[in-house]
Amino acid sequence: MSEASNQPAREAGRYHWRRVAGEYLGLLLALGLLVLVFSLLTRHFFSATTFYTIANQIPAAVLIATGMTLILIISAIDLSVGSVAGLCSAVLGVVMVQYKVAPLPAVGLAGLAGLACGIFNGLVSVRFGLPSFIVTLGMLEIARGGAHALTQSQTQYIGSAIEPIASLSVLGLSLPFLLAVVIVIAGQLVLTRTVFGRYMIAIGTNEEAVRLSGIDPRPVKVAVFAITGVLVALAAVIDTSRFQSANPNAGTGFELNAIAAVVIGGTSLMGGRGSVVSSFFGVLIMAVLNTGLAAVGAKDETKRLITGLVIVAAVIIDQYRHRFNRERATQQ
Amino acid sequence: MSEASNQPAREAGRYHWRRVAGEYLGLLLALGLLVLVFSLLTRHFFSATTFYTIANQIPAAVLIATGMTLILIISAIDLSVGSVAGLCSAVLGVVMVQYKVAPLPAVGLAGLAGLACGIFNGLVSVRFGLPSFIVTLGMLEIARGGAHALTQSQTQYIGSAIEPIASLSVLGLSLPFLLAVVIVIAGQLVLTRTVFGRYMIAIGTNEEAVRLSGIDPRPVKVAVFAITGVLVALAAVIDTSRFQSANPNAGTGFELNAIAAVVIGGTSLMGGRGSVVSSFFGVLIMAVLNTGLAAVGAKDETKRLITGLVIVAAVIIDQYRHRFNRERATQQ
Amino acid sequence: APPNSSTSSPSSPPATGKPRVALVMKSLANEFFLTMETGAKKHQAAHASEYELLANGIKDEQDVARQIELVEQMIAQKVDAIVIAPTDSKSLVTVCKKAQDAGIVVVNIDNKLDAGVLADKKVKFPFVGPDNRKGARKVGDYVAQKLKAGDAVAILEGAPNAFNGVQRKSGFEDAMKAAGLKIVSSQSAYWETDKASQVVSALVTEHPEIKAILCANDSMALGADAALRAAGKQGQVLVAGFDNISAAQQLLQEGKLLATADQHGDQLAVFGIEYALEMLQKKTTPDDRETPVDLITKK
Amino acid sequence: MPQSGTILSAGGLWKSYSSVVLEDVTLDLRVGEVHALVGENGAGKSTLSRIIAGLVKPDQGHMEVFGTPYAPRSKAEAEYLGVRMVLQELNLVGTLTVAESIFIDQLPNRLGWINYRKLNDQARAAMAQVGLSGLDPQRLINTLGIGQQQLIEIAAGLSRRCRILILDEPTAALTSTEIELLFTQIARLKAMGVGIIYISHRMEEIQRIADRITILRDGKVVATQPAREISLNEIVRRMVGRELPEITSRPAAAAGPVRLRVEGLTRRPWIEHVSFEVRAGEILGFAGLMGSGRTETLRAIFGADPRDAGDIFLRNSPTPARIHSPRDAVRQGIALLTEDRKEQGILLPLAIRCNISLPSLPQVSGLGGWIRSQAEKVAAGEWIRNLGVKCHSGEQQAVELSGGNQQKVVIAKWLRRDCDVLLFDEPTRGIDVGAKFEIYELLTQLAGQGKAIVMVSSDLKELLAVCDRIAVMSAGRLAATFKRGDWSQDRIMAAALSGYN
Ligand SMILES: Nc1ncnc2c1ncn2[C@@H]1O[C@H](COP(=O)(O)OP(=O)(O)OP(=O)(O)O)[C@@H](O)[C@H]1O
Ligand SMILES: Nc1ncnc2c1ncn2[C@@H]1O[C@H](COP(=O)(O)OP(=O)(O)OP(=O)(O)O)[C@@H](O)[C@H]1O
Ligand SMILES: [Mg+2]
Ligand SMILES: [Mg+2]
């Protein structure tokens, strides 16, 4: 998707805006189409309530997708996000319930847990030159084991002490949603406007060439994993406060959902190309799809079938849009 | 997807034999170590029974790992193996139970289902130039949905009609085990000794170069997905006959187990490098670990923690072994 | 086979004054919940003039977040009642309270919400459901009859934090303790056939003295049976399950399964829906209702 | 076969990407002739030959082979019809063996089962043709240097039956020994009646082997003439559109203080105890046969590969510099222009601007690493102008540039970083004559500004022209160093050969 963001196209600035518009057009169209279909199929889908519901549901997914976007851009992958979310949630729950720690320091501890997992992922894969796929697959098991060990597999009920985080709201939009939007914008700016972002894109494109340009790719990579760890911890805190309880199984399967959303947004699994904003739209598309299918009351297998087809279709459309953009550009 | 083997090992041909020996040494050592540890920790682990038990349990995992090895070698990935196994199992169960089809044609139909899924995966990713990650992620949902739709989410109890497949045995080793061994050997030979195998390795290393050599990589890729589909179907048949019943949830999570086993075996996630025999050892290591942990009666979270650590450790060891063999490490 | 349930799927109903009842279940990948859904849809078909039904479940039982989202979506859909089988007894309380605060009638079925959390939130939902512990106790007692004191047994647990799994485990343990049987191992096989077979294979090698294996669901019993068959121990080790899925009925007849328990999932949802309708009409809260769990053995 | 017959005739070929690349190009190729294609970087030589080889489809135009219409849809189809091409960029698969790479599309097999003995025998024969008889056909490609890889590609092209063979800059990374062997093979093919399209930026080669020459300029054919009828100067003039000066030797400059001193540099088994020094304002050339260890030496100095022994001293400092990674090297003012541009030098999908500014991003960024995009653009634009990179703007993707222009982008990135010690590995590889002169001028200028330059080149002529001293490597050791005035081609060649036998 984000040829716009990362690989500034060849034309001069005057094409910039048209390009940015085109960038998100496909995603917005897909989104609009879904909303339309579900509005026709059900009575209450097209309503402010649905909008607010979705807005308040997605922040955790958005944060994780943001981290995953950065990870994919450096041509890595993080399969452990779901488990790490579970672990952070467990830390939060256990320290608040069993050790009566106050909310703020407890959130800090959860953040540290996420950071530690991220740094572990990054350091191990960088230090030993291992594929992140396998390191984070290991972490997937380790963090989930840790979550269960900490909580003794019992959901920790925290209660209203943690509630403020999720329930404060501005104009009906929850604090987490606003936070998620801010982080998406910040992420996109970091990616497109900073040295760090440029290094990420370069590393994802050709790590060896970056190394031979006198830039050590390792700290950049570790930092990306660490940032993702923190974003995942934040997501866990948000969901925990939404549910007012910490479940050691929280986050199961998040990794594939996040990857699906990010890829629907058009970020390349091969690295070097991606956009945080597009991933945000990817999350929205998945959320609307889920909400709509639930509103219709579709059978479970139908939901799965449709979800599978939408994932594949979205990527095919994205592919075509790209090809189209490219051809148009080359004809000018 | 990942960053580890951007620089393929630079091994010289003359070290061939030493390399082949070294190839499996690390894996055998790891295996021996695990057996030793569990033998010390338990009363009955080190016994012929354990050996036969494991031998009879792993065939399905071995077949899937064989397919996954080929897939990873061409630098693709198949996340749908578990779901497709579930679908094939469902087909087998439904046609036998509800339509009273005889075992052999039923097995044929299951095989066709696997083949169809594999071809779909291959064709869609090749035709639209999509990453196999996303296509097979779609298939993961689609096939599981199909399995549930077919069986109406009910486990189909087949009973002894299907039993012979799993229970025929030679010298205590079941037919499926022998079949798995034969397929591993065949797979290894195909990989190392045939034109098709060389093309796979070449495509995994540098698909563009293959195309520029005047070879169309697409049929090769589709064939690899198709073969994997059939192997997965075979695995599903074996497990179905072992359990005498077809569960629409069968195979859940197989994809990550298979990838873990294959990567422990030393196959690169970057493509172009891999060995079916090593994947076989990877499966063995995971099986011994699971059996041992169950024999010890470890707590669930302990099992997960240890599994995670073993995955990471195995890959680190493998990396060191490689580096030791390597003539030149260009990594920083 | 169950009737084609899509006929009753209320995809685009005309706006009517009929109350809309949402049934929120756990994993629809689980036969038990499918039975539940089928029962509910049959009931709705028979009472089509009285209410509309919207049935939803989550993909897998671990996905608490998804179930919570489902409830939120039902609130957004402005349904009149929610009948919920919570996948986690603590995490779901908050959102159920939110539904109640929005004026929606909430009935709790299958898995009872945690009493402590309910007290903390100062809410109450009528509960309709079985006592899994009692049911497991019945199965355990039946198994114990076939053994003598001091015999070794093993338990296959469900997912470690699944409330009904924990309940069933406790029920099995109660029965074993009462009969003086020795539990040599109790491990989770995550409700899965494949994992169960792996664990049981290892267990019968390590503890050849095991006389019975108590499984927290029938899928795991299938795996246990396969492992015993492979180890040549079929018939020497008793296997018991839970849920009474269709495959289990055949295993019982073939004598491979000693006993299982039936919670009458189809009625469960129906009771819940009836409670909900009653509450909508009379604006009163009925008492909790325990549904039967029956021991099923070979006929 | 008649010696005067026409094998290929192409007419009215048009091709455009973002701009017109080929404009109404006409070309014919006769039996047994070597037809040279010359032109500046980006003139369209590779595009034209790619069209003929079936890799690119023309927008318009027609081709005939032996009088029958010819419109290949793929390289495979072109090869089936007897048209083969050895590409400009290396396209080998690193994990295959040498033998497998040479015969990748026709592995000798029975029912898919490879006959390795036959394969290796065939490969040995093919390798002998290009002077690689010493190499084990079972070596993996990724253990070979870039020159050897290029020879493997050539061997693959030479060892098939074909009627038309296109060689796109085959000699860019070869030294004179290999070039001689290649010419022998070309003569053999000529005698068999094969038509050869030969692309090179080395004019003396063109003069030696070409029968006819087609000059391309900005996608248009400027002239097609028998080689005998046109002088070298004339070719260059029509290519570039202006007169180029003779390659004149650089006047000896006063050398400054020592900038880089290397002592006992060893990286087994490639280089053994290499010691030398370069002074500010000096250009030190590295000559040697292919595989003599020149690239390895530069990489080891730069910290790109670990070294087994040896110290590096910078700016006359008595203590050795700590260089364990390219980052250390760049921070201490050393730059390396890699010989493998595509894999190690340039980020193909990124914009030219991003490539140029990569090592010096901190210079155009402010607080928190915020990139000042205007400053970045301006700086990139300046270097694009300085080096005359042929592109639409700095926003164009590097992948769309011709090989020579990509090389300029990589040079620009290092000049922009402003290092004192510049290690250039084959800096003119694949660069056209005009641009070569610009680069020589640039090198001279840089030396004049007090930079210390080490330049590896396989083109001895250019070393003789621009260097102050030439170090000759042979079999991983530094065999001799010559000062300007002491050297002659013969003495250098003798030194280069001294380490073998
Ligand atoms: N795939 C492409 N997309 C866009 N432009 C391209 C593409 N391939 C080539 N071009 C452009 O076509 C022009 C001709 O390129 P070509 O590679 O044919 O030049 P060349 O004569 O071989 O140069 P060199 O001597 O540097 O190899 C260049 O301006 C280049 O930028
Ligand atoms: N990883 C490796 N494994 C084995 N041999 C290697 C490896 N890398 C390089 N070589 C060989 O080491 C020798 C020195 O290579 P180097 O690239 O330094 O030579 P060079 O003088 O720059 O020649 P070239 O023209 O090939 O670049 C060559 O024979 C090369 O094939
Ligand atoms: Mg060219
Ligand atoms: Mg070199």
Oligomer: heterotetramer
What is the helix fraction of residues of chain A, given as a range?
A: over 70%
Number of strands of chain C: 12
- CATH architecture descriptor text of chain A: Orthogonal Bundle
Number of domains of chain A: 1
Helix content of chain C: 40-55%
- Helix-strand pattern of chain A: HHHHHHHEHEEHHHHEHHH
Question: Could you tell me how far the N terminus lies from the C terminus of chain A, measured between alpha carbons in angstroms?
Answer: 20 Å
Ligand inventory: adenosine-5'-triphosphate, magnesium ion
Using the coordinates above, name the CATH class of chain A. Mainly Alpha
Q: What portion of the residues of chain A fall into strands of 2 or more residues?
A: under 5%
What do these coordinates show?
The complex is a heterotetramer, with two copies of chain A (332 residues), one copy of chain C (299 residues) and one copy of chain D (501 residues). Chain A has 332 residues and is mostly helical. Chain A has one domain (44-331): Orthogonal Bundle (ABC transporter involved in vitamin B12 uptake, BtuC), CATH 1.10.3470. Chain A contains 15 helices and four strands. In chain A, a hairpin with a 2-residue loop joins strand 2 and strand 3 (173-174). In chain A, 68% of the residues are buried. In chain C, helix 1 crosses helix 10 and helix 2 (64-76) packs parallel to helix 3 (93-101). Chain C has a six-stranded parallel sheet with strand order 2-1-3-4-5-11, with helices on both faces. Chain C has a four-stranded parallel sheet with strand order 7-6-8-9, sandwiched between helices. Helix content of chain C is 43%, strand content 20%. Chain C is an alpha/beta fold and 299 residues long. Chain C has helices spanning 31-46, 64-76, 93-101, 115-121, 132-145, 163-179, 193-206, 218-230, 246-253, 265-282; strands at residues 20-27, 52-58, 81-84, 105-109, 127-130, 152-157, 182-188, 210-215, 238-240, 259-262, 289-291, 294-297. Chain D has two domains: 6-240, P-loop containing nucleotide triphosphate hydrolases (Rossmann fold), CATH 3.40.50.300; 258-333 and 419-498, Rossmann fold. Chain D has 17 helices and 21 strands. Chain D has a six-stranded mixed sheet, sandwiched between helices. In chain D, strands 17-18-19-15-20-21 form a six-stranded mixed sheet, sandwiched between helices. The model of chain D has no long low-confidence stretch (mean pLDDT 88). Classes of the chains: A mainly alpha (332), C alpha/beta (299), D alpha/beta (501). Chains in contact: A-B, A-C, A-D, B-C, B-D. At the A-B interface, helix 7, helix 11, helix 13 and helix 15 of A face helix 6, helix 12 and helix 14 of B. Residues 17-18, 21, 39, 41-47, 88, 390, 400-404, 430, 432 of chain D line the site of one adenosine-5'-triphosphate.
